[in-house]
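Exercise 7.
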Amino acid sequence: MKYLITKIFIFFIGIMCFSFVYSKCKTRDNDDNKIYKQIKNIRKFEYKIFNPIKDSLGYKTFTDDADVGISSIVISPNSDFIFIADAFHNNIKKIDAKNGVIVKVSDDLDKLNISVNDLAIFNNRIYLTCYFRYVIIMDLDLKFIDRLDFTNSHKDVWSLNDTNLIVKLDEEGNKINFLQINESNKPQTLLKIIPPKELIRRETQTFIHGKKYVVINENNNYYLETEKYGMFKLKTPIPSIKSYNANNFDFNEKSIAYFEPLKEKYCIYLIDY
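Solution. The predicted structure, written as tokens, is:
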């Protein structure tokens, strides 16, 4: 009888230990009831840097200034295509996400005397912010739609959601001029006075193409937490580019894309979830 009671006691202790370990594992994958999206597939595309041809990817190193290369990457809404802003060749390139082939290159933007900066996709249109003057609007086949001229302003994508794209044009203290695009694709300029506390709070947050995110490191397990799409598991940290300023990754509901310049080539990664 004593032997049977001992076996029953050990059995229940085993169940309790298993339940504890299981709950810890479940909590690790679902902290605070947040579900991590798991990686389904990773595609890697390599491109040799070849500056003489504008249809290729460009890069130039400077000893006394920042390097010039790809400045931005975005994913199409259905993750079928990747778009990159090539600051060296001053054009936009459209890449087939299935095989990495460059299927379209925009017209040469040098004639506009601009320098490409950041990309955003809103309402099936591409918005290219440029240093100094313009916001260029194209369709997803890189056909020119419009050019908005804002002289002597440094433009950055401020926020992006389902109903609005907002581009920061220039600022003086806490007075900021914005360009707002709504669902009807109507551009409107706005002057907003942003409370200093809000500006300070924003400086402590991280944004890419107007979308807020946080990279989390839990014992060398990396996650990308987004405001709209939840949390994504990362196999490795997204690399930062130190030789020049670039918005080198993007995300949507089911994908993350990023690029990395290496010696004599670029690598572009597309992660499916």
